[in-house]
Amino acid sequence: NAGVTQTPKFRILKIGQSMTLQCTQDMNHNYMYWYRQDPGMGLKLIYYSVGAGITDKGEVPNGYNVSRSTTEDFPLRLELAAPSQTSVYFCASRGGGTTNTEAFFGQGTRLTVV
Amino acid sequence: AQSVAQPEDQVNVAEGNPLTVKCTYSVSGNPYLFWYVQYPNRGLQFLLKYITGDNLVKGSYGFEAEFNKSQTSFHLKKPSALVSDSALYFCAVRDWPGGQNFVFGPGTRLSVLP
User: Fold this and answer.
1) A39 pLDDT band (50/70/90 cuts)?
2) Of A52, A47, A50, A82, nearest to A65 (Cα)?
């Protein structure tokens, strides 16, 4: 089982550049999430999706965009990268109902903006 | 609004001794509670969860956690620590019913000393 797969694992961007972080899951999960992790700050929710075609903002959405055209894929777009977006980004997914309650995480993308 | 506190940034314990990593939470409804572990340069791995029922839940790698509704706590425990348990531990909560998203605590770094 691949689970949640994120690409790339590492990336260095220059200020003002754009990029897309890819996330795909093979568990047929409806819910998908993007978090960023900064040292000592835990995980902050950027965007989430409750199903294909439906996305919503989380706690820290500024500077990011998402789309969810399929159940499997949930890419995160960074427009006009800024040093404040230097972070580790995690994608996660979960199923629905009262049994599939926990989230499964990808391995992360470490992004540096210089 | 949901929130999670992990009052200790760092916990040090000798190998073979019992360990406790503390977590308190706040939700408006009923809590779904989770513990995750993160090893260096890796994603978060699910350890255990409390949804309903028995207040003592058992999870992976010999970890357990006790849900205490009156104290709004969900402390992670292990009877005998291993050096390999050294990692970053996150507590998370999801409000039920209706809560789509997870809120994570800031994390506690556990160091098990040989």
Assistant:
1) confident
2) A47
